[in-house]
Every structure is written in C-alpha cells, then in structure tokens.
Amino acid sequence: MGEKCLACRIDAGEVVVPGGEIYSDDHWVVEHGVVSTAPVALVSLKGHMAVRCRRHVEHFYLLTDEELLNLGLLLHDVAEAVARATRPEHVYVFLSGEVMGHVCWHVLPRYVGMPANQADVLNGLFRLKTWVCSHDEASKTSGEIKGFLDQLVAARGNNELYAHMGWR
Q1: Domains of the chain
Q2: How remote is the C-alpha of 65 from its chain's centroid?
Q3: Angle at which helices 71-86 and 135-157 pack, to 10 degrees?
Q4: Facing residues of 34 across strands?
Q5: Which residues 6+ apart lie within 8 Å of 6 measured at CB?
Q6: Which DSSP string do the residues of 99-118 spell out, in sequence order?
Q7: pLDDT digits (tens, 9 = 90+) for 53-108
Q8: Rounded alpha-carbon distances, angstroms, from residue 51 to 33, 96, 116, 160
Q9: Sheet holding 104-110, edge to edge
Q10: d(CA 54, CA 8)
C-alpha cells in the first residue's frame, strides 16, 4: 500500500480517535470506530469498537499464529463489554480492512430503531454515515466499555488456562 492506511495514521498520531486506546497488547489495539480520515476523525456509531492488528497487515490470512492466539477471546470480551455498556438489541462482530488496507475487526452495536438487516446497518454506517456520535459521546462510551473490558481481561488473566497467553 503506497499511502499510509488509516490504522497506521492513527498509530503515528496523524488521526485522533476520541477515547483513545481502550485496550492494547503486543498484537492488538481496541479503540472507538471512526468513519473518516480527517485529522480529527468523524466518529462512528456510539459504541462501535475497532479491534485492529498492531502491525500493518492487509489480509487475515497473513496474521501470525501469535497474533491469532488471543484474537477470539479478545473479540468475545470486546463484544461482551460493548453489550454491557450500551445495551443494544444485537452486537455484530465482523472483519473488514479492504477499504482501510489494514486488518480490522468491528464490534458494532445495533440499537432499537436501527434496521435488523446487517447489510442495511453497514450501508448506513460506512457509506451514508447515518449514525455518527459526538466526540464526547464516543469518549464517554469508550470509557464505559473500557471498564467492562478491563474486568473481563483481568478475569481471564487470573484464570490459569489463559495465563500462558499473556492476557494483561
């Protein structure tokens, strides 16, 4: 990719995400989702979390075994934290990255009044930008999600089954 992707621009400090990183380890970063590349990002739907690979990688099949090791548990915990903090009707978890040029999982709440069809939700979110929230809303919600996520990750870290995976 010739031009720096959005994720790498965020890492370089060129794009500010309200609420900042709510989780980070050697391989993954979790932060509020954004839908623009402006220096101060246009924030996505309140509670939309982006789970992205720390290193630049454009395709899921290029992830290393080490990167994949904690991914399923992390996605589960982020989805649970989003559900607890936002009380949506449904939580979607899906992989994207073709447009961004960087592997990025999205954990997306679907609230009352939003279409029940995932394709309509994604179209409204990414193409039409129907559901955006303020930076204050994103920061507040990110903080609430972080609180739940910290509890879930800590519980995993105290479980010997997961301790060898390096949960923090």
Answers
A1: 6-163 (3.30.428.10)
A2: 20
A3: 130
A4: 43
A5: 15, 34, 37, 100, 101, 102
A6: TTTS-EEEEEEE-TTS-S-H
A7: 999 999 899 999 999 988 999 999 999 999 999 999 999 999 876 666 788 999 99
A8: 9, 10, 23, 25
A9: 21-24, 28-32, 49-53, 104-110, 90-96
A10: 9
